[in-house]
């Protein structure tokens, strides 16, 4: 499967200008990677910068580095390739939100929240959900995550569901138990989809056990939108996030195998769901992960804030 390299910018950078420069830098460096179409590249700016990032990516290629643009046009012309493909190259960067409200998929009196319909409207295609920082600081749990996943599916937004154990759980040998519990949100999602399908067919919406909290129509639409390309599971051990303590590739491969077993137990179609790793990934340690068949990509925090190091990570996956 085509690997994913996803940059989670978290609450960075401080200014719009720096955000634009970072995105321009990534787009520019990416054009230099010969095989960059061999990899799916996505970044998740903070909400306040998403619109500007979407506008930048949708803008004409002239918004990017002029010299490089001209050099690249000459390079393409020499190869007999139409310059139209250059725009395609720039537009290969996808955008993700870092969260979405659980309270509604649309609009309403929810001060400070951002909804799936708003993200969709500005050109965002994916949402990162269940990141350990949201679980820790905002008590995100499976109940709210289920609503968020359904809202995203309803609007055709892909979901990067993050799971991962704390250091204490890791040391106590409880990694699999923690992950199994966190992954149950996907089992509930699939169950809700199937129930909604039945409900829609039999017109028995009121008997749906989720009817009080979840709009059955949204669930039914979510069923249509449940496609393999719209779900990614990111394994991010909490003790490896932002600590420099990267998990070994052997550990990660074993955990990814466990996650795969859980997913397939929920529904056979999830055999193809990408399972990516996150936690102190950088340009120096990424090669091992890129070479590992059980790792379908990486979710990168700190190292995604430097255009060159992020694109070097992309390059590692492209050359595998
Ligand atoms: P890190 O963050 O790469 O800085 O460890 C990863 C993440 O939180 O997704």
Structural overview:
The chain is globular. The chain has 13 helices and eight strands. 48% of the residues lie in helices and 12% in strands. Helix 12 (286-290) links the parallel strand 7 and strand 8 (297-300). The protein folds into two domains: 1-97 and 281-320, Aldolase class I (TIM Barrel), CATH 3.20.20; 98-277, TIM Barrel (Alpha-Beta Barrel). The model is unreliable at 60-68 and 80-91 (pLDDT under 50). The protein binds 2-phosphoglycolic acid (PGA). 2-phosphoglycolic acid is lined by residues 8, 236, 241-242, 278-281, 299-303.
Bound molecules: 2-phosphoglycolic acid
CATH architecture of the largest domain: Alpha-Beta Barrel
What share of residues is helical? 40-55%
- CATH fold annotation of the largest domain: TIM Barrel
- Quaternary state of this entry equals single chain
Q: What is the alpha-carbon Rg in Å?
A: 20 Å
Mean pLDDT: 86
Sequence of secondary-structure elements:
EHEHHHEHEHHEHHHEHEHEH
Pick out the low-confidence regions.
60-68, 80-91
Q: What is the makeup of the main sheet?
A: 8 strands, parallel, barrel
Secondary structure tally: strands: 8
The helix/strand class is: alpha/beta
For the biggest β-sheet, the strand order reads 1-2-3-4-5-6-7-8
Portion in beta strands: 5-15%
What global shape is seen?
Answer: globular
How many individual helices? 13
Number of individual domains: 2
- By CATH's scheme, which homologous superfamily of the largest domain applies? Aldolase class I
Intertermini distance:
12 Å
For the record, the CATH class of the largest domain is: Alpha Beta
């Amino acid at each position: 499967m085509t690997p994913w390299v996803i940059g989670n910018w978290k609450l960075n950078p401080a200014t719009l200008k720096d955000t634009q420069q970072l995105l321009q830098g990534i787009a520019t460096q990416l054009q230099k990677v010969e095989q960059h179409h061999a990899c799916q590249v996505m970044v998740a700016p903070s909400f306040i910068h998403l619109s500007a990032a979407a506008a930048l990516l949708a803008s004409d290629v002239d918004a990017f580095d002029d010299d490089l643009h001209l050099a690249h046009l000459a390079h393409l012309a020499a190869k007999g390739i139409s310059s139209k493909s250059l725009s395609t190259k720039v537009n290969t960067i996808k955008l993700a939100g870092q969260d979405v409200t659980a309270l509604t998929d649309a609009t309403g009196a929810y001060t400070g929240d951002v909804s799936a319909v708003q993200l969709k409207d500005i050109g965002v295609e994916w949402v990162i959900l269940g990141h350990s920082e949201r679980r820790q600081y905002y008590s995100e749990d499976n109940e709210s995550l289920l609503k968020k996943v359904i809202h995203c599916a309803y609007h055709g937004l892909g979901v990067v569901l993050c799971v991962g154990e704390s250091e204490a759980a890791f040391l106590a040998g409880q990694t699999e138990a923690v992950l199994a519990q966190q992954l149950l949100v996907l089992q509930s999602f699939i169950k809700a989809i199937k129930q909604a399908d039945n409900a829609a067919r039999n017109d028995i919406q009121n008997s749906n056990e989720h009817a009080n909290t979840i709009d059955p129509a949204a669930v039914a639409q979510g069923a249509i939108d449940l496609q393999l390309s719209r779900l990614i599971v990111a394994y991010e051990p909490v003790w490896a996030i932002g600590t420099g303590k990267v998990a070994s590739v052997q550990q990660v491969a074993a955990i990814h195998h466990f996650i795969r077993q859980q997913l397939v137990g929920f529904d056979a179609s999830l055999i193809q769901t990408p399972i990516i790793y996150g936690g102190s990934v950088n340009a120096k340690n990424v090669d091992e992960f890129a070479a590992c068949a059980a790792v379908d990509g990486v979710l990168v925090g700190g190292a995604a804030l430097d255009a060159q190091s992020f694109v070097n990570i992309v390059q590692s996956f492209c050359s595998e």
